[in-house]
Amino acid sequence: MLSKKIEKALNLQLKIEAESSQFYLAMASWAETEGFNGTAEFLYSHSDEERMHMMKLLRYINERGGKAVITALPQPQKSFKGIKEIFEGLLNHEIFVTNEINKVVSICLEEKDFTTHNFMQWYVAEQIEEEALARTIMDKINLIGNEKSGMYMFDRDIASMKAIQTANDIQ
Ligand code: OFO
Q1: Cα 149 to middle of ligand 1, angstroms
Q2: How many domains does the chain have?
Q3: What is the pLDDT of residues 85-121, one digit of tens each?
Q4: How buried is 102 (Cβ within 10 angstroms: 0-12 exposed, 13-18 middle, 19+ buried)?
Q5: What interhelical angle do 37-63 and 83-110 show, nearest 10?
Q6: What domain range includes position 45?
Q7: Quick check: 17 and 130 in contact, CB under 8 A?
Q8: CB distance 50 to ligand 1 below 6 Å
Q9: For residue 48, what are the CA distances in angstroms to 52, 70, 90, 124?
């Protein structure tokens, strides 16, 4: 059985994962309408992953005798200056999510809930990967600068980064 404090912390994390999914969905849709199809594919898939993160929390809360709460979400940003703003936003958001996950882990230790602590380790590992991926992408974007042909290749290549990421998730 989850303590009230843990239940609250997990429900907050559930909301954050749902917000991440919406945020990346908004980015994907913008990229698609601007002709950045590779970027859009990458972000659609990232949005799906965040929904999976949310579902994993939802099922865990209910399984452990708590009640998962589905809340309204704020409307995410609709338009972006360009690809750089998108991936800067993504990296900053992932850093924020990592901090939030660390808070949940620390509450688990305070409450001596070692089962939930163990469950949260999956998220800790996932955040290391997601932050690393976002940093690699930002490095590429900074290398390209404002060069149009570079951006064209970036958009083409990022679709294959999605494929690599999916393959890693399956392993
Ligand atoms: Fe849920 O990992 Fe990104 O935010």
Answers
A1: 30
A2: 1
A3: 999 999 999 999 999 999 999 999 999 999 999 999 9
A4: middle
A5: 10
A6: 4-170
A7: no
A8: yes
A9: 6, 17, 15, 19
